[in-house]
Write a structure and sequence with these properties.
The protein has about 210 residues and is of the alpha/beta class. It has a single domain (about 5-200), classed as Maf protein, CATH 3.90.950.10. Helices cover about 30% and strands about 20% of the residues. The protein has 5 helices and 6 strands, in the order βαβαβαβββαα. It has helices at about 15-25, 50-65, 100-110, 180-185, 185-200; strands spanning about 5-10, 30-35, 70-80, 120-130, 135-145, 165. Strands 2-1-3-4-5-6 form a 6-stranded mixed β-sheet. Helix 1 (about 15-25) links the parallel strand 1 and strand 2 (about 30-35). Helix 4 packs across helix 5.
Length: about 210
């Protein structure tokens, strides 16, 4: 396995996300950088209709641009009563990218008439790990829960204050500390799947994923 397989670029310019992924992948035989460390690596428009497609777009673009293996993720919130929305539009559900307060307000408004028993939801994360030749592997993690009627908690970001975690005794994601969140989060579970597969992947024993 070449040296490029041990040096990965993360398809993000967000140093916070790079640090978060680095912590979750601690102890693995890989060194991480982000696309901001590689001049000329392009930004990628997320035009796919699902999380897997967007993760793959970003990972393959970063791998081609840098000649390294590239890791990308796409994630969001799916609400059953809204037929899976906001889904891939999670970050811009209210129309402006990253306006968490507006996104939360729209979500509460859309669910205003939905009773407790029908407010089930899940956070979803799909990771794509791509080689420069285009071969790629997919890893998925989910965190089940429900949408609260009002925000609770000061931690996290995005929809965390509204998301009641099934495995957290009625607490929202924003009421968990970072260690607890990493253990049960959708991103933590996707990365756990990657960690488990990595020995076979690096040894060439794991066939690439057949992406749609």
């Amino acid at each position: 396995m070449g040296a490029e397989a041990r040096r990965w670029v993360v398809a993000t310019r967000n140093r916070h996300k790079l640090d978060e992924l680095g912590a979750l992948l601690a102890g693995l035989p890989v060194a991480l950088s982000c696309v901001a460390d590689h001049p000329g690596a392009p930004d990628v428009e997320e035009t796919a209709p699902d999380f897997a497609g967007n993760a793959l777009l970003k990972a393959r673009s970063a791998a081609r641009a840098t000649g390294l293996w590239a890791l990308a993720d796409d994630s969001g919130l799916e609400v059953d009563a809204l037929d899976g929305r906001p889904g891939v539009l999670s970050a811009r559900y209210a129309g402006v990218q990253g306006d968490h307060a507006a996104n939360n307000a729209r979500l509460l408004a859309d669910l205003a008439a939905v009773p407790e028993a029908r407010r089930a939801a899940r956070f979803v994360c799909v990771l794509a790990l791509a080689r420069p030749d285009g071969a790629a592997w997919r890893f998925r993690g989910e965190c089940p829960g429900a949408i609260a009627h009002a925000a609770r908690g000061a931690g996290g970001f995005g929809y965390d204050p509204l998301f009641l975690v099934s495995d957290a005794a009625g607490r929202t994601m924003a009421e968990l500390d970072a260690a607890a969140k990493n253990r049960i989060s959708h991103r933590g579970r996707a990365l756990a799947a990657l960690r488990a597969a990595l020995p076979d992947l690096l040894a060439g024993r794991l066939a690439p994923t057949d992406f749609p």
